[in-house]
Amino acid sequence: MRRLGERFTLLGPGLAYLTALMVVPLVLVLSYSIFQRGRFGGLVHEPTGENFARLFDPLYLDVLVTSVKLAGVTTVLALLLGYPTAYAITKLPPKWKTVALIALVLPFWTNFLIRTYAWIVLLSPAGLVNDALTGWGLIDEPLQLLYRRPAIVAGLLYAYLPLMVLPLCAALERMDDELLEAAANLGARPARAFLSVTLPLSLPAVITGCVFVFVPSIGNFVVPELLGGGQTAMVGNLVRDQFLKARDWPFGATLALAVVAMLVVLLMLQAWSARRLQGGRDA
Amino acid sequence: MRRVPLWLTFVFLYVPIVVVVVMSFNAGDSPFNWSGFSLKWYGELAADEQIRTGLGNTLIVAAGSTALSTVLGTLLAVGLARHTRSKLLDAIATLPVILPDIVLAIGLLAFYALVQLTLGLYSVLLAHAVFGTAAVAAVVRTRLATTDPSLEEASRDLGANGFTTFWRITLPSLAPGVVAGALLAFTLSIDEFVIAFFTAGPQSPTLPIVIYSMVRFGVTPEINALATVLLAVTFTAILAVQRLTRLAGTR
């Protein structure tokens, strides 16, 4: 009986808080998506599938597809740069490994808006990148770098790259060197050993890193607005506008749920790959 | 050769920061063209009423939400580690970490509308305590994993009640983790923009909201100066957390 009271005191407050301010709000978002917007921005409590149908309106579908593309390109670039970086970090001597890991997360902890602002400074017509390109005689006129899609990808990549590197570092660090030695002893060249031992074993971490980069990228509305100049809206911008400008909360909630649906699919993929690896080990 | 990607990553991560910091000492009006050293933008920054209000609001929100998160998160961590094996409760405690911020933001906006809470600073504070609690709980649990439960059992066997055991045995051994968790919650709150943007009242913008409107309005070296100050503060805080966590791990 005493244990029961203790359990209640320890778990009760935190869980009650998270239920009230997270679970209930999520249920609200879910329920909004099946209601209609009233004429004056209120809510009509009649279930409808209209909001979900609107997701396939070419206007909105285009934004969703663009968002997936931009977040997808960001994720692929993060993986291409992040994997060899993580690999190099795990091969560093222990002391430098710690330094590298701290240096990796430091920028991540600086204000997100400031980090995005830095890219405005870098990419603007009078900015460092254009200065360097004209200075080296590569171009005559400053290029329009800002307010284009690559600028959005650069901003997102800059914001979330450490989230790709960290899980990969953890996985590569744990990897058993004996497996690689065994591969070498059996005559595998380093490239072959990498492809058939290291890469498959790090696959769950690859997927984790991809989830960590893709999910915040696709929900982001600050980077597309500040670096995309409002010309390329992403789904985050739509959600914001539905809630704060158009006052169409039901549709805004439905758009947000589309993002959550992608998150759920990715998490399932992650769980599946981790389980598959586990199963392979047991066999 | 193997280290090329490593250097590429660090150049990519640090060049923008270095440029922003250097340009904060620019004498001219442009954050792009260097025209001599000056501290004038730091003077402008110190005199900026909007920024001072934003900073004050941010500190109130961060302090309040950190206090709330530290209590809730620590209790939750001990409860989850010692008193339950429920996967569902685990999931609830970690969900704020993976949930896209915009989804939590609109959910909270809808929730505040439902309970008719007027948006102000309180609404941001309560919202920030959601991810703060999850962060503290996560950090304290890693610390719990390295502490020895037999001390708690010994305390009980010697007749101490649950509260005494928690207060005299569990909590002191968790202290480094609790402090690290609190610092993490504080840093997260200071930096948080999206949820604050949705849940702050129009009269109570936090610092990130002020920065957002400044950046949207145009670029000036004053933003660079602000960025430099914030960088110095977060870098110091993170290095402090790093030290504490290391202490927590070795002791």
UniProtKB/TrEMBL annotation, chain A:
<feature type="transmembrane region" description="Helical">
    <location>
        <begin position="249"/>
        <end position="269"/>
    </location>
</feature>
<keyword id="KW-1003">Cell membrane</keyword>
<keyword id="KW-0813">Transport</keyword>
<feature type="transmembrane region" description="Helical">
    <location>
        <begin position="15"/>
        <end position="35"/>
    </location>
</feature>
<keyword id="KW-0472">Membrane</keyword>
<keyword id="KW-0812">Transmembrane</keyword>
<keyword id="KW-1133">Transmembrane helix</keyword>
<feature type="transmembrane region" description="Helical">
    <location>
        <begin position="193"/>
        <end position="215"/>
    </location>
</feature>
<feature type="transmembrane region" description="Helical">
    <location>
        <begin position="59"/>
        <end position="84"/>
    </location>
</feature>
<protein>
    <submittedName>
        <fullName>ABC transporter permease</fullName>
    </submittedName>
</protein>
<feature type="transmembrane region" description="Helical">
    <location>
        <begin position="151"/>
        <end position="172"/>
    </location>
</feature>
<feature type="domain" description="ABC transmembrane type-1">
    <location>
        <begin position="64"/>
        <end position="272"/>
    </location>
</feature>
<comment type="similarity">
    <text>Belongs to the binding-protein-dependent transport system permease family. CysTW subfamily.</text>
</comment>
<dbReference type="InterPro" id="IPR000515">
    <property type="entry name" value="MetI-like"/>
</dbReference>
<feature type="transmembrane region" description="Helical">
    <location>
        <begin position="96"/>
        <end position="114"/>
    </location>
</feature>
<dbReference type="InterPro" id="IPR035906">
    <property type="entry name" value="MetI-like_sf"/>
</dbReference>
<dbReference type="Pfam" id="PF00528">
    <property type="entry name" value="BPD_transp_1"/>
</dbReference>
UniProtKB/TrEMBL annotation, chain B:
<protein>
    <submittedName>
        <fullName>ABC transporter permease</fullName>
    </submittedName>
</protein>
<feature type="transmembrane region" description="Helical">
    <location>
        <begin position="7"/>
        <end position="27"/>
    </location>
</feature>
<feature type="transmembrane region" description="Helical">
    <location>
        <begin position="92"/>
        <end position="115"/>
    </location>
</feature>
<keyword id="KW-0812">Transmembrane</keyword>
<feature type="transmembrane region" description="Helical">
    <location>
        <begin position="174"/>
        <end position="198"/>
    </location>
</feature>
<feature type="domain" description="ABC transmembrane type-1">
    <location>
        <begin position="55"/>
        <end position="241"/>
    </location>
</feature>
<keyword id="KW-1003">Cell membrane</keyword>
<dbReference type="Pfam" id="PF00528">
    <property type="entry name" value="BPD_transp_1"/>
</dbReference>
<feature type="transmembrane region" description="Helical">
    <location>
        <begin position="223"/>
        <end position="241"/>
    </location>
</feature>
<dbReference type="InterPro" id="IPR051789">
    <property type="entry name" value="Bact_Polyamine_Transport"/>
</dbReference>
<feature type="transmembrane region" description="Helical">
    <location>
        <begin position="121"/>
        <end position="140"/>
    </location>
</feature>
<feature type="transmembrane region" description="Helical">
    <location>
        <begin position="59"/>
        <end position="80"/>
    </location>
</feature>
<dbReference type="InterPro" id="IPR035906">
    <property type="entry name" value="MetI-like_sf"/>
</dbReference>
<keyword id="KW-1133">Transmembrane helix</keyword>
<keyword id="KW-0472">Membrane</keyword>
<keyword id="KW-0813">Transport</keyword>
<comment type="similarity">
    <text>Belongs to the binding-protein-dependent transport system permease family. CysTW subfamily.</text>
</comment>
<dbReference type="InterPro" id="IPR000515">
    <property type="entry name" value="MetI-like"/>
</dbReference>
